[in-house]
Amino acid sequence: MIRSTLPLNSLRAFEAAARHLSFTLASQELCVTQAAVSHQVKSLEQLLGVRLFRRLPRGLALTDEGQALVPVVTRSFDAIQTTLDRFVDGHFREVVTIGMVGTFATGWLLARLPAFQDAHPYIDLRILTNNNRVDIAGEGLDFAIRFGDGSWTGTDSLPLFSAPLSPVCSPAVAAHLGGPGDLPGEVLLRSYRADEWASWFQAANIPCPVIRGTVFDSSLALAEAARQGVGIALLPVRLFFRELDRGTLVQPFPIEVDVGAYWLTWLKSRRETTGMAIFRDWLVGRAAEERS
After folding, report:
1. Number of Cβ within a 10 Å radius of residue 157
2. Are the CB atoms for 60 and 25 separated by under 8 Å?
3. CATH (domain of 81)
4. What is the average per-residue pLDDT within 125-133?
């Protein structure tokens, strides 16, 4: 049955009465009379053709139909309230949810976030970090920032910047390295992308050794293992500039290999919001400025 007018007053009276299991307490909350609440609930029952409450000597009890209706009404009013709360000083606060590689978040984005927030105070970014394996639809993301070749099924993408890889280690490990040819004799830390070390050794014109040992799913974990002297990590050095500047990590050789880039991606089926467009233009523009 199609109803042209949603009975909001009756639904609000029902929700309050169901929460308190009392018309009296519901009337006090809504600042109306007990009779008004009872009337609104009765009107809703007549509209639906069911009883929503059993009237007891002391209070109320929900019928099966009432119990079925309560969570739907509660969620709906909560959603309305949440949306209304996002209006501040005549502006609507929009949330943009972004999944990104943790290395990109800590090594590039966080330092630039204050500039974005100052320019766009009514856009709230929700940042979720991952290890480059992400389900944009399943996680409810507006965007994902990924490392790779820009080709992911069902998505559009824009390039941000490349991040060449180079060996990085602790100062103590670097101290006894004479040249790139010494690396096959060292502990080489591995990421889940198995071809990275092979690509680097090819760029260095050195035969790639058989690499065994622990596999890390994050460049941040690789960097920490290297910092602690566990071995030598292959990392995107531009995103670890702070550690290199402080000397907690060392890039012993200048040889770098480019195996991919960071990309801003989003589902082809995702309808773009104003907040998404603003963040996309800011991010891509900032990356382009720094590339130039």
Report:
1. 19
2. no
3. 1.10.10.10
4. 90
